[in-house]
Queue: 3 jobs
Job 1
Amino acid sequence: MRLISLRFRHVGPFGEDGIALEGLTSGLNVICETNEFGKSTVLKALETFLFKPFSSSDKQVKSLMTGGSEFGPEGEIKFEAGGEAYDLKKRFMKGKLCELRSGSGQVLAVNREAEERLAHLLSPEGHEKGPSGLLWVRQGDSMVGVSDDGQVASRLEGELTTLVGGDRAREYLTRVEADLAENITGTGREKSNGPLKLARDALAATQSALADAKAKRETTYETGLKLAKTRDDIQRMEDGFDAAESAVEIKATRDAMTAAQAFETDLQRLQAERDRAAQMASRAGEQQAAHIEALTDFIRWQAEITALETAQKERVKLLEQKTEMKTALRSDIEALDTQAAEYGQARQAAEEAANLKLRLETAGRDTAYLTAVDENYRNLSSRLAALDMQLADMPIVKRADIHPLERLADALRRVEAEIAALTTHLYLDLASSGAGKITLDGKALTSGPIELSGSQTLDIEGIGRLRGDNNRLQVLERELKEADKAFAAQLDVLGVADVATARQVADERHDLETERQRITADMTSLAPQGEAAMRTELETARRLAEDLSEKLADIDLVEARPADGEDDIRRELTSARGRLDALNGEIAELRETQAAAKAKLDGLRNNLTALRLSDTEAERTTQADEFAAAVLKTASEARLAEKAVAAAQSNAPTQSLTLLQSRLTRLEQIAAQTQSNLQDLQRREASLRANRDAAFEGQDADAKVEALVAKLELEQAELDRLERRVAAQTLLRDTLLASQSKLREAYTEPVRAELAPLLAMVLPGTEANLNESLGADTVSRGGRIEDIGQLSGGTREQIAILTRLAFARLLKRGGADAPVILDDALVYADDRRRDDMFDVLNHVSSGENGLQLIYLSCHQGATQRLGGHRITPENWPKD
């Protein structure tokens, strides 16, 4: 298959305008666009339209839709296959359609039939995605190794088929494995229900039957003796047991049990009524006792509450007295403290003055340093404000905005140049009578040169209308308006008149912003915590110096007082503080006692509330009377129920129900055991008689044993024959598998031979070692074998791409030509390796047997060195 052109609409970012890739050559095609243009979307769309049924609406199809669009993906793919040109049109979701046309436009098939014909064209061998599954490298998968899915191997085997290594060998292997599968499993064990297992089981059964026959022949002679003894036992048991008498005795016992059960039921009912009455009497007594206990607690707790409340009032008065004593004692201590402080003031004054002088000197140095920092910071801040004003007065144009603006300008110039090349140039020479009779878009013309574009109309009065018939020119004029509008809009957004001004403004803004960053960094180094923190630190240093100066000036060097007077004051002060501590302890103890009493009062009050007794004495007395009456009533009912139970028990049966049940169980067990023993003896008699009469079905015992010996010899011979057959088939299967392994080694050689010169162009001295799937898993270089996973990302990427190219060349020679598509596939290569890979791509895509390559990239600079045919994406024009 060779692609000719691709058109898609309502796919990813392309929306209603769509995208068209026209003029794809049979060699190297290069598509280079920026990130997020949609290159990978084009590859995803190509795969979806070729291999997804038009009726599909799965996740892959939905993910291809343009966001917010109500239309499904639509596409047209022109391609060649088998030397014939085809045109595929497909639409998903809304208005779904699949149509396959010939190169001349004839409809070949539609919908499901078109899908089937397309699948056959893309992959006659039936592989799911044809050669594309091997040869397309999607973005991000360039390092993923490739392995054959059977397409390459199947074509190579067609050239290498032999008796022991090709189709015939596989046919023999299949037949041998099928025969073996009848007798053994995949793990080598004998298969259940297989001929070998059945023969072995039959032999074992005959061996068992022979042993059984021999044993029966020995035991038949003893059977007659056992039969006579069994008949004697049956006769003695029948004479010693009367079944009719046993049945009468069992029935009488059952009648007595029925009467006893009725008595037990009545007695249980009366006892239940007695127990219920006793429970009610007990409950009434308990309720009365609980009420009496609650009354007792009520009276006791009321007395305790009264006593506690009285004690609380006395403690409050005592606490007030102690508090007044504490206040007076504190006043005495404060007076003594003042006298002691006056004695110590004279000693401390000189020491404090010396300390203040040292601190004042340090504060002066700090203030001078911080003042210099502040001045420098203010200068930088002024420069920063000036830069901000300059930046605010400039248009907001950054260097990153220049490239998109230049692209819009280039697009505008390209359209203008193409219009200029297509515009019709005329010269109008009017006679005097023709003045005003010729107009261009409603404007009268005079003699002189004129230009007639595709959308303009030349009206000639009385004759008709002359207009351009160049559709391309009309399209270009629309594109010119759109390009001019987009360019003017971008200039307006940036606030500049042209590209040169924008470039100049961007450079100036960049220089100013760089200067601003430097100043900001200097200011940050001067004031890491910010300007406010720096100013606060300076003000703090100044205030500290002023405070220290004032304190130094205010120090009054008081004359020292006699030391003995200070000692008397301090002893008296210590005594007073001791008395204060004792008084504080007494007050704390009183408060703790008071708090404990309050907690106890609260608990007693809660207890009274929980009793739920009436507040009045009369109501509590009424409640006590009601409980006493209930006790008397329930006690009377309990005595009456007890008398009824005693009366019933006086009429109890002479034999208890338990005794009757035991007697019935004994009688029934005797009858059942006797009957069971008799039946066992009768069955034993019948069995012995049958064994004696039919042990060998009327045949001679010795003849039966001899027949089984002959059968055993035949079955042993059949088992030996099957074991020899299975051994021969196993040897043949192993031999054929070894031949298949040699064949795989033979058909990896063409792939290795095709890959070797390509590897030599990029990785000289490197040889790829292929696995059974024809993928490279190790490489040999410098006398060492290295695992593919240990190589650098760039080297793995290059080997994966070169392997795909080798596959593509083998498939093309085998008649399965398919394009190789690489989407940003050389992202890990260095400059030299990338150039080498570019040489390989040009090499394999040139010549009579060259491959069709489509190279997608976002790297303009790198792809300039690739060469090939450049494809410029365009909108898909509507019909």
Job 2
Amino acid sequence: MFKPSRIRLAVLALCATSAQIAWAQQTQQQPQQQQLQRVEVTGSNIKRTDMETASPITVITREDMVRSGASTLGDVITKLTVVQGGLSGVEFSGFTPGAATISLRGLGGGATLVLINGRRIAPYGITGFQEVLTSVNSIPVSAIDRIDILKDGASAIYGSEAIAGVVNIILRGDFTGLEAQVQHGFNGPGALNSTRLSLSGGVGDIAADRYNIFGIYEHLTQDHATVSENRFYPSRNLTSVVGAPLDLRSAYSYPGNLFTGAIEQTPGTTCAAKDQRVVGGLTRCVLDVFEYNTMLPGAERDSLFVRGNVQLSSNLTGFFEAGIGKSKYSYQFDPQFYYNDFNTATLVVDGAPYGLTGPVDLLYRSGDLGPRRLKVKSDEGRILAGLKGSLGGWDFDTAVGTMKGKVTVDQYGSILITPMEAALANGTYVPGLQNDPAVLAQISPVLTRKGEATTTFADARLSTEFASLTLPGGPVGFAAGVEARREKQKDDYDERFVIGEVFGFGSLDPLDSSRSVKSVYGEFNLPLMKSLEAQLAARHDSYSVGGTSTTPKVGLKWTALSNLVLRGTYARGFRVANPRETSPAVSVGFFNGVQDPVRCPVIDPANPDCSLSIQANVSGNANLEPEKSKSFTVGLVFEPAKDVSISVDYWRIDRTNEITNLDITYLLANQAAYAGFIRRDTTGSITDVDLPYVNLAGTSVRGWDVDFRGKTNLGEEGKLNYGWAATYFDNFYVQPAPDALNEDYNGTYLQPRLRMSARLGWEKGPWQTELSANYVGGYQNKPTPSGVCSAPTALNRFCEVKPWTTLGLYVGYKGFKNLELSLLVDNLAGEKPPFDYRGAVNSQTRAWGATYHNALGQVYTLRAKYTFF
């Protein structure tokens, strides 16, 4: 058999909450024997003693999280090579501010299932434009025991959304004592200032007292920082960055500019010297959006997790879990621009206040309203109780619970069209001059959005090994389970968003939906020979809205040699349309920085058709069918020496019948075929597009995961531990429409082919240190394989976003009684993030790709933990 080496036993001890090494003196003459309890491994419902299964799994331990300096779960996930497309972070653009979601294999948050202790978590309180999301940042890091990343399709085990894989967050199973932690992160320029405090306490010993109850409280604060507070790209005047004139500060400014074909400062107004720019001999006032836009949101978060275990008998344990999270986030953007002539995109007003005759055209932002701001409050709760134990050779686990997420978003600094036009007409609001605060309040009231998501569930599962049903390799393992849940989602926008009264903002129509889900599943573990075992699993899910699906999975694991395992899996997956996708209402959003290839074949900053703001009219479809997928993995695990392990896995995921609307880039690149979906104004510029949801597209991704890890005992000089991991994409095929050809997006914008990480650690006595490295490959600065580079010919050296490598250094010390101290320096050399021309010019939010890069420079994290008892 594949023998459990020391490294495997160490992983087992860390990974299995309930696994213990039991030493029993059977007789005075018999030697002690090591007995490993059977435990449940992510990706299977059958308990086992061998942690190596047919499915590839990455395990992140508590020690890994400490060495990463993570303040949130999102901080942990972002550096994993398997995470492609990044973590949305605490999103502040789009429709779900405050949410942090995970995308495995680049297939989006909707294709990655997130679990806590093998059970689902509540959706985020508000919905995305297409997605019903689960947010991970409310989970207290101090409560996490480990994170399992299952890197193959798992719909047969866990249900919908597990197309790309599963992130299973395993919380601490028990705790006795009292400990406190404090962690503070900061960087040189002072843009980052984050503090995390936690207190953990527990009483009772299961073995001696037959119970254990513990709780973990965590408080986190983070200061708000604007893009201008980074030291690499603090301004949209990028002349010094590109080595050629490229000042992208906006002429839509405060107090504004007069537009007569030429642009000059509005008569009778003034702006600071730093906000002035001379073009063609005329002085204009400019606004740098980097001075306003959020780089890091302000955050304040409180989380509490409580768990209790009570041993009711030798074979029966009762348990409960309760978690509460309360979060506040703050974001800001540049002041709202405003115009009322949609042909010229200018604000037409009476010229008399400026000493001019007749109507005049202005390029204007409402700086007197201040920056646009969002204040987000998110409350999440989760409570469940259950029983687990054994009876008649069967292990069982059953629970009931409820989860709820509530989100309130207050929006400041927006402009209501009707009050603004009325104030302009009667002269109570004069752009660029002093205005009455009461008028400003009428033009720009606080706008509120509220959402709530609730899930109630009950489940039961059991497993056994049939002593009477054996194969050459041993007894057959079996597991089965049932699950029922009720999901409700409500999302209400301020009515003024819905009717289009808020200038420059789209909205999602109100949503009030519910659905029921019933599932049944089964699994066999077949030891065909001593060295060969098979996994067979199937699951049937029935949705009251969205259809049904039956999904199988097959896995094989062959121990070819004592130190070599070959493994492979085949699985089908599915994702049922979410309530937002099935809603018949039309929702309105905007794509910003869009290039119209008809009127802008080559990027020219002076051409408005190279960076359009286009309205998208999106409608749901009650007749959508589930997305389908097929996934394959084949690989090996090789132990060339004691405590050294190498795994290599090839993977492929084919997703069909995708629920999507036409990709806007594909739509605009094929305008002749989709002319009815596109509308233009009298000048020929695109104003809006129709993007209904349909079962339309397909995606096929394939690549390789390599993982090398080991440790070496140096005797009196301590221990070395080391590791290297890489994910390489062979292809990222996308078929945007059934009649379209597959195009390989691999290496295009935000699709790097390669991500790698490495570490080298040393432990001696109370000291521990580790040097780590993270690598993100480069990618082309064009949105599609057939698209054109976002940069003009003169700046074609920016047609690629360059690779980025950062180093980290961790030093920990445990030499004081009950006290642990550590220091982490992330981005040790202060590496500058690669310049992203498309991000700087088109999206206007920052000059680097926030999906994989940051502009914080060196980040220092200090941590102390004290154990009271």
Job 3
Amino acid sequence: MENLFERTTIVNAAPVGALATSGGTAINTIQHYYTGFAPEMLHRPIETVLEQFRKGNKDVAKGQLKILRDMGGQDPKVLPALDVVSIFLNLLDVDETAKVRQQLTTFLAQQPVTETPSLLTDLCTSALLRVACREVDAEAARVVWNSLKSPGPHTKETFLALIATVDELEDVRSRGLLLTAGELRGAVEGAIRLGNYEIAGAAAKGLLEVDEGTTTRFLALSAKAGLAESEFKNKHFWSITASLHDDLMLMAKETSELLLLEPLPDSRLPQLAAKLFVYLRGGSEDLAEACRKKIDLIQAVHPECASLLRFQHQKDCSGFSEFGQKIVKAETDEAFRNQYINNLICESSLSMDDAIFLKHHAAPEVLKNWLGGGGRCIEKDELAKDLITLHLLIRSLDPIKDITGRRELRSHCQEFFTRHGQDLARLNADPILEIAGQLNALDLPLEAARFLEPLLPNGDYWPSPIFRCYLDSLVRAEKNATLAAVLVKIPDRFWNRWLWQLKARLEFFLANYAEAESSLQKGAAFGITPQLAVGLIDVMKKLGNESGIPGVLSQVPDTALALGDQYSQRLIVEMFKNGLEDRATSFVLECFIAGPDLSAVAITDIFNTLFYRDEPLRLGVFSGEAVVKGVRYSDGKSILTKLILAPEQARGQYFVSSSSPLGERLLKVTVGETFKEGIVSYKLEESLPAIVAAYQISLHIRDAMNEGTDCFHMFHAPENPHDLLQQLLEISSTNRNQRREILEHESLPLMFKGHMLRKGNPVDAALSVLSDSEAKRHPMPDYASEEDYQAVVIDVYGVIYLAITGLTTG
């Protein structure tokens, strides 16, 4: 049988899509070439039209159908078949459908009864079922189905897709290999219609074995989506298991691939992509990128998703609700934010939206005053009202200053758990994550973990934001046994640098130093960081493998170091200690030149730490070309310490340009020599290594910038050694007075005193407090007076006490 569409393309030397819209000469040529033809000749081109339709190429299918109509003219033998195709393509309006239904009935009544219906009879019967479902209901269509003695494949597909019950679909599935591709396709569609995704998935699997087309891939994807949705129903994305997370990520990848195809495999695909994107919270970059490229299609079916995409990509919040736009505007518009907050705090009662705005943008002090003045949120849902009230209270506290407030907050949390403990699992994960993170910052990790636990899956964890926060809570609360039990439930494929560091920290605590080193090495495979490198160095020292420290330091690039980071500072100290002083010196000087005021505190901390060593400090040589030297000179009024730099680097009051008249003279004269430059007389007091000059300048900067919160203080040593000794005695006398006040304080608990005097060393603290004659004696518990204990668990203070008193020897 000839392929009509291939032949028309040859005749007109133009693609089918062009023929469908060219009109005029092309159509006339086709009509002239095919003036009348038998209906049997339509079989193959109709199958081609339907195949294009199934693939989602609807425009191509419509163009091909137009060609067939133009060729067929008004032939009454041909029109029913073409009308059938129109029904499949959903091209007819209500009036036309009613007319076609009558034509189909008449046409079928005229067809002879055969064991195997012809293609046109099969298509007409299938179309009649579709019309019956559309016009009346499935029962009317079932009447038509029941009247058929030998339905064809298209009719069977339509029945399964639009009419069949779950039991009938189950019966079809049990036949397995005996099903045609059309029946499998119909079974998938029918199962999706009925929400039975197990049948849909099984049928889709069989369909993929005989047809791997994009339409089949979409149907299989829809079945997977339905199964996944039944698993995570009413669960936040962060609360699902690792296995389901993997399935969704694979679905997102396949969805993104299908969404980018031209034309779309199915008109339902944008809706599926949008829903998946929203549920995954943008977690799949492939899907996000595909949705951005098809933003118009997404907008048509899911405006909320389109708004999120535009905001993520372009910071365009025009699609948000009025409240959402206010939240976003307040992020950047300070005047609007302050005015809106001022308006809100004038009210004693706020709606939920306004309370959320205040929680997002008001300063802690503002929130504290508003709550203290009787401010409250009005909301019918008691759970929601109590949650936002608690959140406002949390946001009103300062993590460092509000010690009393933290104690009250713990009580408020317990009240919340008492009232709503059974409802925690249905809370939205977003505000809970925010609350838990702030509770951790306020040193209330147990309360944070209590909020998070109901939202976690029962094992099979993946590092979602709430799970990471939960692990952080366990670490802060020192719940090491729970932490160990949780870590083993994370599949290997999700382990990353952060998790390996947690594992190493746990092993280090248990004194399993070899295991800790192994964990850190596995974490380093994801890229070494200053924090991880510090961990490796500490473990190596415990293992007595200090010779490996330079190797660790060499793995950390300078680009990963930041002078304001405590771990980077520690690494720089280790560089000075382990023969990498040139690199350390160069890095410190580069940071100092880039920002003296910003780096002064870090530089003084680094060198003050190094000065506590017994070994002499080795200074390195700067590897760059910008630094010439450091100098200390007088100008007749004061003594100045500065760095002499290359002209392009010498910017600011702490530097002198090497090409300036003063810089040139300072480089030429010897120490102690006086010279005159302009009207000022100068004297070079000392020539310094550049790094020493940077340290001395940093000392002055830090001392000058101290607004009272920095424990640092710089004092100048007198030239007379006797005066220096007297000055040191006065400083130590002040410390002794403070120590005596602490030891003699009656209300301070024993452990508090030890912590204040020897922070970070409980054994030394216990020895210091318990053996000092000036310390106020605290009563010890008399265990034997209450009960005859078989064993008593004591802390380090109890151990030291027993050792000092000799009670351990009987």
